[in-house]
Amino acid sequence: MSVAVVTDSTAYLPEALVEQYGIEVVPLYVVLPGRSGREGRDIGPAEVAAALATRGAQVSTSRPTTGDFVAAYRRCLAGGAERIVSVHLSAELSGTWDAARLAAAQIGEHIVTVIDSRATAMATGFAVLAAVRAAAEGADAAAVAEAARKTAESTSTLFVVDTLEHLRRGGRIGAAAAILGSALAVKPVLHVVEGKVVPLEKVRTSARAFHRLVQRTVETAGDGPASVAVHHLAAPERAERLAEELREQLPKLRELYVSELGAAIGAHVGPGAVGVVVVPAPDEGALLEVPEPPEE
Fold first, then answer.
1. Are 73 and 84 in contact (CB under 8 A)?
2. In which residue ranges of the chain is pLDDT below 70?
3. What are the recorded GO MF terms, alphabetically (predicted)?
4. Given CB 3.0 to 4.6 Å as the disulfide criterion, which of 40, 60, 264, 266 pairs with 28?
């Protein structure tokens, strides 16, 4: 493809799609007690969940360096790309977008277009998929970038956490800080608005939060086709149960992916977190086959 697509590791795209479309993924960095490394390459979600469950343990994250992005862009150009569209998690949540922008200035802003998805996880991932699918069809860089922007704008991200403490410690909770006093005794349903984590509603139990997560997702998807991703950290059974509920209640699913959050986002939501990304899709053509959960 003449237009290459780059993203960061917080998009949590299924590895099969990364390989299929040749997406360049630049990892964030994660710092655990006694060691640090690249998300998804050196440090995985299980290690983060274990560290967060250890009393007094500190887990932090940092953005990729500008040099990391320069190297990624040069690999794309060496591979034959003429233009690059680089799609990243919300600038409100990380400095990743800024590092990519600085790298683009070194390579040439007429070559690299950097996009703030104002989202994270598969809300960014679906924007990346829209971009790379447009590129695969021969779209120019402007059209590829527009496909990413439009998809990012249409995504909704909903999630619940066992505790808001990890978000508070990481400074990612935004407006939700106003409800911290009471929220630690309830189970808030949160969402991402304009790149920030904000409360959507408060419920009293985990079961009720799960139920509302399903209801809100179905309402967001509407009656038409939709693409959906289910995320979790150290909660695979809850995630599969959530996915099964959505398969039953969303008969027009185009795509459904279930994946564990990586270290960079997992460090801020904590073990037990589950979430959904939903993208209402145009009602065009046949529905895609929805991946079934793997057999035990």
1. yes
2. 1, 56, 163-186, 282-296
3. lipid binding
4. 264
What CA–CA distance (Å, rounded) separates 202 from 90? 24
Backbone angles phi, psi at 185, to 5 degrees: -100, 0
Question: Any residues with CB less than 8 A from the CB of 52 and at least 6 apart, and which?
Answer: 59, 166, 266, 267, 270, 271
Task: Please give the CATH number for the structural domain made up of 3-28+63-154.
Answer: 3.40.50.10170
Spatial contact of 255 and 220, defined as CB atoms under 8 Å apart: no
Looking at CATH, the fold of the domain delimited by 156-280 is given as: Hypothetical Protein Tm841; Chain: A;domain 3 (3.30.1180)
Q: Which of 46, 106, 96, 95 is nearest to 70 (CA)?
A: 106
How would you list the strands of the sheet with 187-193, edge to edge?
196-203, 187-193, 156-160, 274-280, 226-232, 253-260
- Give 256's strand partners: 228
Q: Angle at the Cα of 31 (from 27 to 33), degrees rounded to 5?
A: 150
Which of the 8 DSSP states describes residue 272? Answer: T
Q: Where in the chain is the domain with CATH 3.30.1180.10?
A: 156-280
Q: Where in the chain is the domain with CATH 3.40.50.10170?
A: 3-28+63-154
pLDDT digits (tens, 9 = 90+) for 136-186: 999 999 999 999 999 999 999 998 877 666 555 555 454 454 455 444 566
